[in-house]
Specification:
The protein is mostly helical and 144 residues long. The chain is built from seven helices and three strands; from the N terminus they run H-H-H-E-E-E-H-H-H-H. Strands 1-3-2 form a three-stranded mixed beta sheet, covered by helices on one side. Helix 2 crosses helix 4 and helix 4 packs across helix 6.
Length: 144
């Protein structure tokens, strides 16, 4: 194994250290996630890896834990893999943006109900479903 494959994100170290006291279940799931420092500012999930951007360390610790939990749940719930399977199944009818919005809404709702802080804007399932019932989905309107 190369050194890069075994290096844990330095940017996520503080949030990871505090995660067990805030949410032991998320902490256990985080053990299975590869976390690397990303070259850019954005934190994102790709396959089974969390790429921690430079802006992550500028967040308050409470929000770092929420963002980390968000990405851990994306991996645990296998959203990217499910998206690929759905895209194969539905072809041109599949809307990746809506899938991502739904995934984010589900995850953020879980995290908020678990007492985690989320940076704004954050889409929540309740607001998302209310808009869907009203006849349309508008990602700009579905955020806190």
């Amino acid at each position: 194994m190369t050194e890069a494959a075994t290096t844990r994100s330095k940017r996520a170290a503080t949030a990871l250290a505090h995660l067990p006291e805030h949410d032991p279940a998320l902490s256990a799931l985080a053990l299975w996630c590869d976390m690397q420092d990303a070259p850019g500012n954005e934190t994102f999930t790709s396959n089974d890896s969390i790429h921690v951007g430079a802006d992550f360390v500028r967040l308050p610790l409470r929000e770092q834990i929420g963002v980390l939990g968000h990405h851990v749940l994306h991996i645990a719930l296998r959203h990217e893999f499910r998206m690929g399977a759905m895209q194969q199944r539905f072809g041109a009818a599949f809307d990746a943006a809506t899938h991502n919005l739904c995934s984010d809404a589900i995850i953020n709702e879980c995290l908020e109900r678990g007492g985690h802080s989320l940076p704004r804007p954050a889409v929540l399932l309740k607001r998302f479903l209310e808009d869907a019932d009203a006849g349309g989905l508008d990602p700009a309107q579905d955020v806190l």
